[in-house]
Amino acid sequence: MSTRHLVDPELLPLLDLWPAVTMSAEVLEQARSWPAPPPPADDDGVVMERITVPGPAGAPDLGLVIFRPAEPVQGAGGICHMHGGGFVLGTPEGSAARLRPMVAALGCVIVSVDYRLAPETPFPGPIEDCYAGLAWTFANAARLGIDPARIGVMGESAGGGLAAALALLARDRGDYRLAFQHLLYPMIDDRTGVIEGDPLTGEFIWNRESNRFAWHAMLGEASGGEGVSPYAAAARAENLAGLPPTYIATGSHDLFRDENIAYATRLLAAGVPTEFHIWPGAIHGFDGAPDAAITREANHSRIAALRRVLRG
User: Fold this and answer.
1) Segment holding 298, helix H or strand E
2) 254 catalytic, yes or no?
3) 43 is catalytic
4) Are strands 109-114 and 46-53 parallel, antiparallel or unpaired?
5) In this predicted model, what pLDDT tens digit does every residue of 62-87 receive, in sequence order?
6) In terms of C-beta density within 10 A (0-12 exposed, 13-18 middle, 19 or more buried), how is residue 312 classed?
7) 153-174 in b/e burial notation, b at 16+ Cβ within 10 A?
8) Which of 157, 189, 253, 287 is catalytic?
9) What is the pTM of this model?
10) Engineered SS bond to 188: which of 173, 235, 257, 267, CB 3.0-4.6 Å?
């Protein structure tokens, strides 16, 4: 039985526009050519610049896209961002519609990492690219006008999973101290879609079959097995203590709802300051409907949370 009747009515046009495709090797090339949401007008006071920097040792150079205020704010907060796309799709430019308004509202600088995609580059390549992007952000904080004490990580969907894994990796390597992690419907547990889940989640946008394909592409093997690294799937981490203050938001009908609830609960139990939201009637990628009241409310929540951590 369809769960469409449980979806916020203002989000239903998004379902009609979104390609009803289950991700697989056969459709991957076509999916990579889907157009990104149109970015806001370029008169928003935000400058977008793509640069190339050295990648991880032995890897190709790394692309970064910098979003910054046209009028620099000295001592601004900084965000190292990872885009979504199930580890197999997406670019930083495809996130412009989400990131430019954040920069305009907060006066922050966002460095979005163009990490290598699976399956061509499976784990650990993507997370090492993200770590190289984070290292560059810290090393160039003065040039960017960023206060290094106010740099955090952010991502959506698979990008949220990479941001969560990056927070673990930064904690464990001890090179950089993050001010926060900000995760929107993060993809953090390879076991979701393998074990039985709530049938009221995951019908739309990103389903269990797509999830299994994407995790297989990322891990190089079937998901749900033993020995999966927490730097690939953050939910696999045994110890969450010492992670930075965390914001997590998800939808009530998102496939990742239960893994996000579990992660937030474990963060709280580990003493990590954590703010958690479940948006009723929301599906995966619901913020793709920017005019829906629930999207506006969720975006207001995100901006308020980021304002608190970016301004210290």
Assistant:
1) helix 293-310
2) yes
3) no
4) unpaired
5) 999 999 999 988 889 999 999 999 99
6) exposed
7) bbbbbbbbbbbbbbbbbbbeee
8) 157
9) 0.97
10) 235
